[in-house]
């Protein structure tokens, strides 16, 4: 079942239920009102009859029967019966019918003083009349043909009105559901035209206020992220291909040079040394690609636990210096933490250590004095680690792209590296709900700052 039909069906069921309940309520109230009104008329007739019979001496039984038969308010099949305290019938408004009555009904009237009930198709009331020591029971019954006829007409009217109302509701429900869902159909048509070749296309966001407009806005945000991801993928493939082509081209050139003419032993040694160097570069590049792939694949599955950032800084320093003893790394605090928890973050110790080692290595590698200055600071919300160098610096244009995989600043391409470390570091910091920022000036140095929320 389509959403349009489901909405129309639900709307029709709700409105039909309301109409049914409303119609039943009207019919019930009208039926109750008719019955109560008719009972009041019967009571009035019974009181009038017994008062004429008892209190007005000038009116005898025969005259009272004439009055009852010729009154303008006479009802269909009307009967008025009056009984004394011995259940003897002392007055009947009709003489041509056999009178049937139940003595238990008379006793019930004497106990309750007023009874409303039925006698076949007729409504019947019983009243206890007490005056001057005389106890009389009056029974009055009649058939409210006119009231029942009006009630039947009301039932027919409500039935047809209910049928028409439900039919109209179904039609309007289908129409308005279609009208309401038309923007979604338009969105579906627009979405069906979007492929990997035109991710820059955006959906119409309408008034930017209703739910469908917000859906279009959110989908446009998804498209923007997809477009960014595709552009990163293309950039990744382009830079990876370029990095792989360089050592492969060098290998091929050295091999062609060796095959061009007979070489002396020193020349053979030189060719083999160059081949070994290019092979090492190719192996390192392949390992970097493998590290990048494995890191991005498992980055969201690493368990987090409390980690002391200040301790981790010293551990990263020791590991880097053990591999590259010519580097110099100084560590200092901008402020003394107010509590032990201000340098404790929730994260992966191994991943954060890899980020620190990468930043320390870059600072030393791109500085002529191979020195990195590390400063740790905290506040009420976050812990920060700043890595400063006095190296070659980064231009403003390059700063916008240095966190892309394989991207390298224009002035850093003569230094050994593949442009992978910063992109992986940025993703690791984002995974820890932190930020990795850079502040740099050409030929003056760079400062990379890690900001992480502490516990």
Structure characterization notes:
- The protein is an alpha+beta fold.
- It has 3 domains: 148 residues, PAS domain (Beta-Lactamase), CATH 3.30.450; 95 residues, Signal transduction histidine kinase, dimerisation/phosphotransfer (DHp) domain (Helix Hairpins, Orthogonal Bundle); 152 residues, Histidine kinase-like ATPase, C-terminal domain (Heat Shock Protein 90, 2-Layer Sandwich).
- The chain has 10 helices and 12 strands.
- Helix 1 packs antiparallel against helix 4 and helix 7 packs across helix 8.
- The protein is elongated, with a radius of gyration of 50 Å.
Notable features of this structure?
Helix Hairpins; Beta-Lactamase; five-stranded mixed β-sheet; elongated; single chain; 3 domains; 455 residues; alpha+beta; Heat Shock Protein 90; five-stranded antiparallel β-sheet; 12 strands; 10 helices; 55% helix
Count structural domains. Answer: 3
Major β-sheet profile? 5 strands, antiparallel
> What is the CATH architecture annotation of the largest domain?
2-Layer Sandwich
N-end to C-end Cα span: 50 Å
Shape: elongated
Arrangement of strands in the largest sheet: 2-1-5-4-3
| Total beta-strand segments | 12
Considering DSSP H and I runs of 4 or more, what fraction of the residues is helical? 55-70%
Query: Would you tell me the overall average pLDDT?
Result: 81
- CATH superfamily of the largest domain, please? Histidine kinase-like ATPase, C-terminal domain
Please give the CATH class of the largest domain: Alpha Beta
Separate helix tally: 10
Q: Which stretches of 5+ consecutive residues score pLDDT under 50?
A: none
């Amino acid at each position: 079942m389509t959403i349009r039909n489901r909405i129309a069906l639900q709307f029709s069921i709700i409105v039909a239920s309301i109409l049914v309940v409303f119609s039943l309520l009207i019919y019930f109230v009208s039926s109750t009102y008719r019955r109560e009104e008719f009972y009041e008329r019967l009571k009035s007739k019974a009181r009038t009859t017994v008062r004429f019979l008892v209190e007005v001496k000038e009116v005898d039984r025969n005259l009272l029967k004439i009055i009852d038969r010729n009154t303008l308010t006479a009802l269909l099949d009307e009967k008025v019966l009056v009984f004394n305290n011995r259940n003897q019938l002392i007055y009947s408004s009709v003489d041509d019918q056999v009178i049937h009555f139940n003595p238990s009904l008379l006793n019930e009237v004497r106990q309750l003083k007023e009874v409303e009930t039925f006698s076949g198709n007729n409504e019947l009331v019983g009243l206890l009349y007490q005056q001057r020591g005389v106890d009389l029971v009056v029974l009055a019954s009649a058939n409210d043909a006119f009231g029942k006829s009006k009630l039947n007409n009301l039932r027919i009217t409500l039935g047809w009105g209910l049928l028409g109302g439900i039919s109209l509701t179904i039609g309007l429900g289908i129409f308005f559901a279609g009208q309401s869902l038309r923007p979604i159909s338009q969105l579906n048509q627009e979405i069906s035209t979007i492929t990997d070749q035109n991710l820059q296309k955006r959906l119409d966001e309408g008034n930017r206020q209703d739910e469908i407009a917000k859906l279009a806005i959110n989908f446009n945000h998804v498209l923007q992220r997809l477009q960014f991801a595709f552009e990163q993928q293309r950039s990744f493939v382009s830079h990876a291909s370029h990095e792989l082509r360089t050592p492969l081209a060098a290998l091929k050139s050295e091999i062609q040079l060796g095959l061009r003419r007979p070489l002396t032993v020193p020349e053979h040694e030189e060719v083999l040394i160059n081949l070994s160097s290019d092979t090492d570069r190719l192996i390192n590049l392949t390992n970097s690609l493998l590290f990048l792939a494995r890191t991005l694949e498992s980055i969201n599955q690493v368990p987090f636990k409390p980690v002391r950032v200040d301790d981790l800084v010293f551990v990263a320093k020791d590991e880097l210096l053990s591999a590259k003893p010519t580097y110099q790394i100084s560590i200092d605090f901008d402020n003394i933490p107010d509590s032990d928890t201000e340098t404790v973050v929730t994260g992966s110790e191994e991943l954060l250590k890899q980020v620190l080692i990468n930043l320390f290595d870059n600072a030393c590698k791109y500085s002529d004095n191979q020195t990195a200055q590390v400063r740790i600071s905290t506040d009420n919300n976050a812990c920060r680690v700043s890595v400063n160098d006095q190296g070659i610096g980064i231009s403003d244009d390059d700063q916008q792209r240095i966190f892309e995989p394989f991207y390298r600043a224009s002035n850093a391409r003569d230094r050994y590296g593949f442009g992978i470390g910063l992109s992986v570091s940025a993703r690791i910091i984002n995974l820890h709900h932190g930020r990795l920022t850079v502040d740099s000036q050409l030929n003056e140095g760079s400062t990379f700052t890690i900001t992480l929320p502490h516990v």
